[in-house]
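Protocol step 4 of 6: structure prediction from sequence.
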Amino acid sequence: MAIACPPRVLFIDDDPSLREIVSSILAAFGYDCQAADSRSGPGRFNEGGWDLVLANLTMPEGSSWEVIETIRQRAPTIPVVLMTGLSNPAVLRRAYDCHAAVIVKPFHVQTLIAALVEALYAQLA
């Protein structure tokens, strides 16, 4: 899979403020980031052309696990990065089983960008 220039990221989170902040940060680093909530995320994913999915793990309106499972059924190899404040072994193991990278909140912008670069690079390898 070739990475588009700029890489297209679907960011799924139920917090409108966080969607705006993360989208702005990613745009500043040259990403084409489109944001959606947990209900509309799978539909937005179906639009196609995404290079990576970034999702908040804990959302009041839905489970990222369900969203990731839906995405994995449609595109098993797309890179997925989960953001979470939960760093317990069970969460990390489930993310590993879903072939998703995890960044633990709070995190620095550099950590976010490094996780995206690593996930995209791994896809090309």
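Step 5 (inspection) to follow. The helical segments are 16-28, 41-46, 64-74, 89-97, 109-124.
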